[in-house]
Design brief:
The chain is of the alpha/beta class. The protein is about 45% helix and about 15% strand. The protein contains 6 helices and 6 strands. The chain has helices spanning about 10-15, 25-35, 45-60, 75-80, 95-110, 120-125; strands spanning about 1-5, 5, 65, 85-90, 115-120, 135-140. A 4-stranded parallel sheet has the order 5-4-3-6, with helices on one face. It starts with a strand and ends in a 6-residue tail after the last strand.
C-alpha cells in the first residue's frame, strides 16, 4: 500500500532511520497549517526536507536557487545543506506566506544565507547576471511556466 507516491514500507524505513523534524521544522509545519489551511499540503514533507538537505550537502553545493518558496520548509533544508558560506536565492510572489519562512529562517540561523525576492520568478531570473551559475535548482512553482 502506498501513501502518496511513496510505498508504506519505504516510508516506514525512512522514518525509522532519520532523526525526524527538529523544533524549528515542527514549528514551521504547525505555523503553515494555521496560516494557510488546506494550502498547507503544498509544503514538502519531512522526508523530502531531509533528502533536500542531504542532496545539497553531498554535491557540495555553494549556490542554489529555489522557484516557489511558500512558507520556507524546502529553503530551510537547502540553506542548511549549503553551509555557512552558501547562498540561496528564493523566488516567490507572496510576501504573506514568505513572512513565515523569514521567521523560521531566523530561528534556524540561516537567514543570512537566503536572498528572498518577491516577484515573478521569470522576472527575477531575467534580472540576474547572465554569468550567474547555480550548483542546485529546485523548481516548485508555476511548473507549466
Amino acid at each position: 500500500m502506498a501513501r502518496g507516491i511513496v510505498p508504506e514500507d519505504i516510508a516506514a524505513y525512512a522514518a525509522a532511520h532519520s532523526a525526524g523534524r527538529d523544533a524549528v521544522q515542527q514549528s514551521l509545519v504547525e505555523r503553515t497549517r494555521e496560516a494557510t489551511g488546506a494550502a498547507s499540503v503544498m509544503q514538502i514533507g519531512g522526508d523530502q526536507g531531509v533528502f533536500m538537505e542531504v542532496l545539497t550537502r553531498s554535491i557540495g553545493a555553494k549556490t542554489a536557487i529555489e522557484i516557489g518558496t511558500f512558507t520556507g520548509y524546502s529553503s530551510l533544508a537547502i540553506a542548511r545543506g549549503l553551509g555557512p558560506d552558501g547562498r540561496l536565492i528564493c523566488c516567490d510572489v507572496s510576501a504573506e506566506w514568505t513572512s513565515i519562512a523569514r521567521e523560521h529562517w531566523k530561528l534556524a540561523g540561516v537567514e543570512q544565507r537566503i536572498d528572498l525576492r518577491i516577484a515573478p520568478a521569470l522576472e527575477t531570473l531575467a534580472s540576474l547576471d547572465p554569468a550567474t551559475r547555480f550548483d542546485l535548482a529546485f523548481i516548485d512553482a508555476d511548473k507549466a511556466g
